[in-house]
Amino acid sequence: MDNHNNIHSLEMKFQSKIDAEVKIEPKDWMPEAYRKTLIRQISQHAHSEIVGMLPEGNWILRAPSLRRKVALLAKVQDEAGHGLYLYSAAETLGISREELFEQLITGKAKYSSIFNYPTLSWADIGAVGWLVDGAAIMNQVMLTRTSYGPYARAMVRICKEESFHQRQGYEILISLSRGTEEQKKMLQDAVDRWWWPALMMFGPNDSASTHSEQSLKWKIKRKSNDELRQDFIDATVLQANYLGVKLPDPNLKWNEERGHYDFGDINWEEFWAVVNGNGPCNKLRLKARKKAQEEGAWVREAAMAHAEKRAKRKAEKVA
Amino acid sequence: MDKKEWPLWEIFIRSKSGLSHKHAGSLHAADAEMAIENARDVYTRRNEGVSIWVVKSSEVIASDPEQEYMFESAKNKIYRHPTFYDIPEEVGHM
Q: Nearest chain B Cα to A10, which residue?
């Protein structure tokens, strides 16, 4: 068989495995484009977990009570763990952790645009948990069934931990909704600012999404951007009503015929501006990551030196 | 890349006594002791384990997924399963 035919038959076999819901594992043959798409998507996802710690970390020292503080600390710690699970999954595809970090710091790899928005008040921590984690969960629950084994397994672990994040956020908002006029205003203001960026988290409309069709065929994704966005809106409206907040969309209304909520147009110009580096905090986030990477270098080196010393001592003992 | 990179470790967790260790994931650490400490922080934050094994990823030797014939011979040996044997119902559970 010549090379071209060989690749073709491997691709056919690969797709038939996908169609039969057989997971792809690291050492299995896979098309280069599948590998590349996964590295791009998983690393983007990992970077989002890591950068996502920054807007929340901003409020750890200012949490209004010890209960809120330990919860927020635990949540941010979880995000670091989630980043690690995902980096590990990406590494099974043949890219090193150092390369992944490098791509984040140089801006070659993206992370979710949502983290380029600032957390201006305590209510934002509630809104991030409720809306941002809520949107992330929609996507991540779908990804527990993704076709690449290590990615699916990381997602199962992440989803188990993530539901606490959304609940702690919503609980913060419930407290505010039962508070003073000023607290209610804080709540509404946070929802006004986070609602649309949260909807943008699902990515461009299906008609404008470049990677969607192939990703669905490969079952990397199981639902389209627009389907997930609709699921999220349908699930969230009731929760907003309970809080007594108004979602900032005059066109949001139940459509009996569709069995879904209709909603207004998303400002895609804003979305692309933030993706392309011009959001309110893009530069700040990358600067913080770069600083952490550089200032943590001595710790990584010291750990290595310690390990070498320990190994040497052990060898001497044996000798 | 320089030699300062931390090696990769595979992490196995025993969730409770009586159960075997199960692969939980992997992480980078400078040596085995630190891998165990990191694994505790990453993989047992919610009481998921009572014991941890760490194995250097480079030490794991795996079968080749291309060699599908490795598992072929077991496929047609259905007589290795209890359901292959007919036992009258009145004999009861066996």
A: B66
- The whole-angstrom separation of Cα A136 and Cα A44 is 13
The superfamily (CATH) of domain B3-86 is: Phenylacetic acid degradation B (3.10.20.520)
CA separation for the pair B53, A249 (Å, rounded): 52
Chain A, chain B: beta-carbon pairs less than 8 Å apart: 51
What are the start-end ranges of the H helices in A1-121? 3-19, 32-51, 53-57, 66-91, 97-105
* Residues from chain A contacting residue B31 (CB–CB below 8 Å): 306-307, 310-311
Asked whether the beta carbons of B20 and B5 are under 8 A apart, the reply is no
Q: How far apart are CA A32 and CA A34, in angstroms?
A: 5
Nearest residue on chain B to A149, alpha-carbon basis: B25
Q: Which pTM value belongs to this model?
A: 0.92
Rounded distance, CA A163 to CA A156, Å? 12
Chain A hits for B25, CB-CB cut-off 8 Å, are 85, 88, 153-154, 157
Indicate if the pLDDT at residue A147 is higher than 50. Answer: yes
Of the candidates A246, A292, A136, the one whose C-alpha atom is nearest the C-alpha of residue A202 is A136
> For residue A281, is pLDDT > 80?
yes
Specify whether the CB–CB gap between A118 and A281 falls below 8 A.
yes
Give the model confidence (pLDDT) of A40-90 as tens digits: 999 999 999 999 999 999 899 999 999 999 999 999 999 999 999 999 999
Q: What is the CA radius of gyration of chain B?
A: 21
